[in-house]
From TrEMBL:
It comes from the Bacteria. Residues 135-222 form the Prolyl 4-hydroxylase alpha subunit Fe(2+) 2OG dioxygenase domain. InterPro entries: Pro_4_hyd_alph_FE2OG_OXY. It comes from Lysobacter hankyongensis. This is 2OG-Fe(II) oxygenase.
Length: 234
């Protein structure tokens, strides 16, 4: 029986040499590094890392584009496996051969070619801000069990998060897994692999402490377009 934990791993989302270059740039860019934050601010007992936020950082625009393209490739695979992730929340419609509107089915999404699926993705979804995270060996980590949805943000941006993703930029250390509570699953970092999972409490997770080596990741979210974009100002 197929394991439906709704967590997917794309093994070679980014080549190792590209990951190595990003890691070297993180180590070198001391000016952009800042203490890692959670939703309420800087709390090292919850998350202990040094981060670089890419959005709005012109020096990292090329890396932001590279990572978003890697995420898009993984997202296409994810929606082919779980088309309801797009269909269930939005009740999408398309024009049929007779010119009338009809509801899209999961089969419609699963059978679209890449160009058609990318068009649908760009209509309904958008990329979030990307955060590069550096967890030092034997001290860094994100041990707090958390999900990616929370109501503290007054703009409600965090409530638009649909999927989370993590791209592992290196390996060669012990532990340091992304651990999911309810799925009882630990995802071991592998250089260039990209994890996608739902953003809600069903996929509560934590980042275990790396041992014997530093851990580098890129993280972000796939968000719904805002209502005014999807449905107009009304």
């Amino acid at each position: 029986m197929k394991d439906l934990d709704h967590i997917t791993i794309t093994p070679d989302a980014l080549p190792r040499e590209v990951c190595d270059r990003i890691v070297a740039r993180i180590r070198a860019d001391q000016a952009s590094l800042h203490p890692g934050q959670v939703g309420g601010g800087v709390f090292p007992e919850l998350k202990h890392s040094r981060d670089i936020t890419l959005t709005g950082n012109a020096a990292w625009q090329d890396v932001e584009q590279t990572l978003n393209m890697a995420m898009l490739g993984a997202l296409i695979r994810y929606l082919r496996e779980y088309p309801a992730a797009l269909i269930s929340p939005l009740m999408l419609q398309q024009t049929g051969p007779d010119g009338t509107l009809r509801r899209l089915s999961a089969e419609d999404v699963a059978t679209k070619d890449d160009a058609g699926l990318i068009e649908l993705i760009r209509t309904c979804l958008r990329p979030g801000h990307i955060n590069l995270q550096w967890y030092r060996a034997d001290e860094g980590g994100y041990p707090y069990w958390h999900c990616e949805l929370y109501p503290r943000d007054t703009t409600c941006e965090t409530l638009h998060r649909h999927l989370l993703w993590t791209l592992y930029l290196n390996d060669g250390f012990e532990e340091g897994e992304t651990e999911f509570m309810y799925q009882a699953r630990k995802v071991k970092p592998r250089t260039g692999s990209l994890l996608l999972a739902p953003a809600g409490f069903t996929h509560t997770h934590r980042g275990n402490r790396p041992k014997g080596g530093d851990k580098f990741i890129a993280t972000s979210w796939v968000l719904f377009q805002r209502a005014e974009t999807l449905y107009g100002q009304g």
